[in-house]
Amino acid sequence: MDPVPNLTRADAAAALRNPLAYIATRWTPTPRTVQRAALTALVMSVVIVVTGGAVRLTGSGLGCPTWPKCTDTSLTATSEMGLHGAIEFGNRMLTYVLCAAVGWAIIAARSQKPYRRSLTRLGWAQFWVVMGNAILGGIVVLVGLNPYTVAAHFLLSSALIAVATVMWQRTREGDTAPRPVVGKAVQQLVWSLVIASALLIAVGTIVTGAGPHAGDSSEVERIPIDWETIAKLHAVLAWIVVTLTFALWFVLKAVDAPQGPLHRTRELFLILLAQGGLGYIQYFTNLPEILVGAHMFGSTVTWIWVLRVLLSLRERPYDEVEVPAPTATAIPTRA
Question: How far from 271 is each of 151, 275, 287, 301, CA to CA, in Å?
């Protein structure tokens, strides 16, 4: 085992000036470690969405009635606030777990050799989206669960999942220019699928904002649209996404496409069938909370797989020439 380098005062000062660069000079993660770090950030981005849905479905949206404190006099939930306060405060605490997961992904990407600027930037993009969504979450509380801010909160979470998915994929690729593995027509069909899926998610937030699950037992503003009508529009968009996915699978088979896009498309089709069946069940059973929560989780998985289909349309082999880390932030170590 190699001896641990002595930490001098100069090293400590350098670590304070640029801790990421300091860690990068003393630790080189394996590619698998970087992949796991990116996957952990992705999993946590899904967990925070699902637990946020649990807050809403249990009527705990105002369990902590203010922000950034839980109450005007307490930073944390108190016993008098009961289960709703504990659920809401617990969801807030999970934001720190998400930040830790994203931080680990950033550190792992920054420390990888050779240095990959694009990968590190994807990690920082996640960090800033998390910070923005945390502030927006506070605004949601301060405006009494206004449905439009709640919808924006979920859409920003979907953006976080998108960035995390791209980073996870990029950890298994090189930094060369992407080379398409299918033709232009197939790429256009997939982009149509991505756009339709994004619209499906957006309309889903309107269904939630107009539906019966307001997020709190008090009188909460709702979007002034008949939720059953908008739910039917949501179903139409879902069928469009299913149709596009089936058409894509058929085209990929016809053009003898590589196995990667075929497998991702088949997986997406199965996920959509399960998600669609769940959606109809919850609609005809008057939206029971457990099914709505499962449907919300399904929406995150669907979005991830739509993006995986898109990312499977190109390949990026590893660079043959290593890219050195930026010399401006390099810190020498002592033996």
Answer: 23, 6, 20, 8
